[in-house]
Amino acid sequence: MTVLDFSAYIGLTAVGFATANILIGLLILGRYSPVRYWPHRRFDIFGLHRWTGYATLGFTLAHPLPLLLSKKPPFRVIDIAFPVWSPLQPLWNTIGAIALYLLVFIVVTSLYRIQLGRHLWKLFHYSTYMAAAGLFIHGILTDPNLTGGAVDYLDGGKVFVEICCAIIVAGSVWRVRHSVKKRAAERLARVGHPATAD
């Protein structure tokens, strides 16, 4: 296994955890109950969401570090921290770095969600979608071999990222439709049972 392979596998692991984290977040947003639905028993879904978030951040932080051992092309710390100066693919690497900085922001603000207040924290937390978009764009459009060649969208790693992206899109569409149906049902309930005058 080469340094580039190791970096790529760490990145794919980060994408997998990010996908799981967002799906769990969508379930929480939809007030999913593991007791009422599968697996019909109590477990800490919030804890699972939190730890998949930490894992996403950890693997995303670790993903570029093996590149410091690369000799062709050579990468410096500055090339990883601010990839606009990276020797190859500066645009896609910069998008990946922005996703990483957003993940750090999301985790830090989540640690202080009580102090921030629910409304402000929730606004900050929606940046998860921007971070995920950055991860997917970076994962799909970068060349893992750093040859500067065309993107092979049917490469195994690319297909994995594409499937994860499709799952997130499908989950988000489900969440929006579920929310719309729920609001419509609540409106019908109010119409069917109007408040009585005093």
Key terms:
mainly alpha, 198 residues, 8 helices
Explain what this protein looks like in three dimensions.
The protein is mainly alpha-helical and 198 residues long. It has one domain (3-192). The protein has eight helices and no strands. The chain has helices at 3-29, 45-62, 77-81, 90-111, 113-116, 118-125, 127-141, 156-192. Helix 1 runs parallel beside helix 8 and helix 2 (45-62) packs antiparallel against helix 4. The longest helix is centred in the C-terminal third of the chain and has 37 residues, at 156-192. The mean pLDDT is 88.
Helices and strands, with pairings:
Elements lengths: L2 H27 L15 H18 L14 H5 L8 H22 L1 H4 L1 H8 L1 H15 L14 H37 L6
Helix pairs in contact: 1-2, 1-7, 1-8, 2-4, 4-7, 7-8
